[in-house]
Amino acid sequence: MTNLSLKTEPVALGKSGLAVFPIAWGMWRLASPDGNDDLGAIADRVEAALDAGVTLFDTADIYGCDAPIGFGGAEALFGKALAANPHWRERMVIATKGGIWLGKPYDSTLDYLRSAIDASLERLGLPSVDLYQIHRRDFLTHPREVAEALIEMVEAGKVRQIGVSNYSPAEVSALQAFLPFPLVSTQPEYSAARFAPLYDGTLDQAMERDMAVLAWSPLGGGRLTDPAHPVGALLAQQGAAYGTDASAAALSWIMAHPARIVPIVGSQQPRRIAALRDAFKVEWTRGEWYAVLAASRGEPMP
Question: Which of 176, 116, 167, 169 shows the shortest CA–CA distance to 143?
Fold first, then answer.
């Protein structure tokens, strides 16, 4: 039986006409916890990602809220690095998100999203972004109003494509009902340690609707690189069989799914960013892939 092997061919970003490298790079931890935000170091990380083939660069306005630079910090730092290296832009698909504000905590009203996209573009120093995603569902805003804000962004040329993050399949359907264009992406938390999207319909809906799946926290917050963790031990074993490590195996496990899931690597170390290509070395038999899922479930497959 043929092993499940990975391809480096670009992944379609839904029905957008855009395509991206099969692994993305994310900026949740771009801002330094100690406030020492060296633009040279940030440029080194971005260059490492570009050299590895990455084209999708994922950020959000809330990134930086847990660092001295505060809300909008990651966007601002990335924007400064972009301004100093304008030649990067043509090699990038840039994505950002909005809708979370600590203390509210969620706001997807028309007025708020209008201000949020303008603030994001100002921090990034860009006239538009390729992908804008609602970061989390705001239960107090009707999806019709959310859609109105998103339509306005697209028609104003501020955003090329629209997606969602942390949305359930029902929430995707409700928002899509009020949009004249397709949602091109959904961004769930998904890893060998957090497999709910396999069962809750997220991945099935994405395949049905031809939406890209962008997976955040693909290493399970670091748990999957711990050899003492039952799943981490299996991933380390699988990675070693192909001359690499548990991190590469964890990414490849995600990418083996037929939805062609794009994991978002969050490492801020150039060496580790460069190593993301090791994921393409790792292959799986069906038995090996399901053994990882069974270990994560804590029980045999039914």
Answer: 176
Return d(Cα 272, Cα 286) in angstroms, integer. 28
Task: State how far the Cα of 293 lies from the Cα of 192, in Å rounded to an integer.
Answer: 7
Pairing of strands 11-12, 19-20: antiparallel
DSSP 3-state of 147: helix
Give the CA-trace dihedral at 36, 67, 187, 87, to 10 degrees. Answer: -30
Measured between alpha carbons, how far is 25 from 50 in angstroms, rounded to an integer? 9
Q: Helix, strand, or coil here: 217?
A: coil
Catalytic residues: 63
Structure tokens at 259: 């939805």
CATH fold for domain 11-222+259-281 = TIM Barrel (3.20.20)
Q: What pLDDT digit, counting tens, does each position of 58-105 carry?
A: 999 999 998 888 999 999 999 999 999 999 999 999 999 999 998 899
For the whole prediction, is pTM greater than 0.90?
Answer: yes
How far apart CA 298 and CA 109 sit, in angstroms, is 41
Distances (CA, A) of 201 to 49, 195, 276: 31, 11, 28
Token code pair at residue 99: 């809708």
φ, ψ (nearest 5 deg) of residue 224? -80, -5
The DSSP bridge partners found for residue 113 are none
Angle at 67 between CA 153 and CA 168, to 5 degrees: 45
